[in-house]
Design a protein that fits this description.
The protein has about 160 residues and is α+β, with helices and mostly antiparallel strands. It has a domain of about 100 residues. The protein has four helices and eight strands. It has a five-stranded mixed barrel. A three-stranded antiparallel sheet has the order 6-7-8, covered by helices on one side. It comes from Alexandrium andersonii. This is DEAD-box helicase OB fold domain-containing protein.
Length: about 160
């Protein structure tokens, strides 16, 4: 009929869509889930024989902590609380993270305190979408929510 050029379908096949920018997606997730942020640290196995390739064994060497919040009268008390990644979570058994911060949707107490629905988030996302950063002049660190600390050395 002539409404479209004859090369229309060929051009459509040749164009590949741009891959999604997952950094932006994770930043939006961090902003939406804040203050549900967990810190993750890896402890090192003492011997080579303690290392394993199974997700359960790899997860043994990961340490997760969240800031527990309690409202009491007119004040809020916060303190760090150890937790675990739930075995059904996609992050269970992951032992390599680019940065030590995870945003999570749910934390639930069953036999242990478990994190569900977690994803890695960048420090920049926490600085931009978290609570107001406070600069500690002595340690030269920015603190977000009183416990997330980011080193920012002064450059002259």
């Amino acid at each position: 009929v002539g409404f479209l050029p004859s090369t229309f379908l060929q051009d459509e096949k040749d164009e590949e869509p741009d891959p999604p920018d997952w950094t932006v997606v994770c930043a939006a997730v961090a902003g939406g889930l804040f203050p549900n942020i967990a810190q993750v640290e890896k402890s090192v196995p003492r011997t080579q024989s303690q290392q394993s390739s199974s997700p359960g064994d790899r997860n043994k060497w990961m340490r997760y902590s969240i800031m527990q919040r309690h409202l009491s009268g007119t004040s809020t008390i916060t303190y760090p609380k150890a937790c675990n990644m739930h075995p059904n979570s996609l992050c269970f058994g992951q032992d390599r993270f680019q940065c030590p911060w995870l945003a999570f949707y749910t934390v639930q107490q069953t036999t242990k305190l478990y994190l569900y629905d977690a994803t890695e988030v960048s420090p920049w996302a926490l600085l931009l979408f978290g609570s107001q950063p406070v600069k500690n002049e002595v340690s030269q660190k920015l603190e977000v929510a009183g416990w997330m600390k980011f080193h920012c050395a002064r450059q002259d």
